[in-house]
Amino acid sequence: MLRYLSAGESHGPGLIGIIDGLPSGLGIDAAEINKDLARRQKGYGRGGRMAIEKDTAAILSGVRWGLTLGSPIGLFIENRDWENWQEKMSPELKHAGSLAAVTRPRPGHADLTGMMKYMHEDARNVLERSSARETAMRVAVGAVAKALLSEFGIRVFGWVRGIGGVSAGSLSGTPASLFKLAEASEVRCPDAEAAAKMMKAIDAAKKVGDSLGGVFEVVITGCPPGLGSFAQRDLTLDGLLAGAMMSIQAMKGVEVGMGFEAAARPGSQVHDEIFHSAKKGYYRKTNNAGGIEGGMSNGSDILLRVAMKPIPTLYKPLRSVDIKTKKAFKASVERSDTCAVPAAAVVGEAVAAFTVAQAIVEKFGGDSMAEMKRNYEGYMEQVRGL
User: Fold this and answer.
1) Among candidates 55, 129, 41, 130, which has minimal Cα distance to 347?
2) CA angle (360 as vertex; 357, 363 as ends), nearest 5
3) Is 224 helix (H, G, I), strand (E, B) or coil?
4) I want to staple 75 with a disulfide (CB 3.0 to 4.6 A). Which of 17, 53, 206, 375 is the partner?
5) DSSP bridge pairs for 330
6) Percent residues over pLDDT 70 in the chain
7) Spatial distance between the Cα atoms of 246 and 350, rounded to a whole number of angstroms
8) What angle do CA 61, 67, 73 make, to 5 degrees?
9) Dihedral sign of CA atoms 232, 234, 237, 242 in order
10) Domains in the chain, ordered, with CATH?
11) CA 28 to mean position of chain CA atoms
12) What is the pLDDT of residue 335?
């Protein structure tokens, strides 16, 4: 079983990640992890923290001379702002009270509910971990997962489809070509005309102290048929991917393939007809299902679209109530972005990559890459012979 845990607060010493269940013999390059971490920090509309943090991941365990050992992999990402928070976020009792408590919970955040759940009188104890700063470790872990997927010809691409009501037009081209266009865009959108309008929308929101959400798309190519299962509710691949996407901070909706549009069409315009040829084997000419049927990958590209709400921390704060006095106040302001949808697309890639990597490990098993590849090739030969 492939799994990971992370720990760390937004203004603590750093973020910790432990990945367990990877086979031995997988090549891991810290530079590739750091490349994705840098991508997460880019994007038009990001806030001041991106000028402070230049994220890099240190590999602490589980890799020797560039190859995994089969033992847990330890990762660490330093918070460079920690030097300004050592007493304010200290684990030592002697520093208690060195920072005033946050008693005005912000609408749209975990603040108030987290304070209720854990009996905190300081929202700082909630917001430090619920912060999207945690996604830096998700991206690092996802980069490791991408290394595993690449061994089986699986690639993960992400780009922005819409921001603040501005949507990209019809996108044509391969996922790789669209990804290349998106990476050259400040808002990570492959439609240049729409990207320019998105930037104007971000500028307008920033001017009035507001924030914008949007929609990003993740496409996974090269997946073999049969990842996931119809046999149990918690094994369906679309359920696992949707749950993983919804676990990202600020995500409010997920579509697979045609998504909600399928509910408005008759079945004859929704379901993907099946064909067969000696060269291709079984294939489909359309992909309305988004590469998943009956909870299992069907061999087509997996298509996901994810809706992100506007960031709830606003420079024109919404109304809230002080938990001490119960009086109405304007919610406190933490350093924030105007729009983080371009960064969210990178996080979405990482989360999708790890979920598919889990399915690959479950399906093909093995304690080493050599064993896993033998299992994979045997299965693919079986599939081709059906």
Assistant:
1) 41
2) 150
3) coil
4) 17
5) 319
6) 97
7) 13
8) 25
9) positive
10) 3-384 (3.60.150.10)
11) 20
12) 59
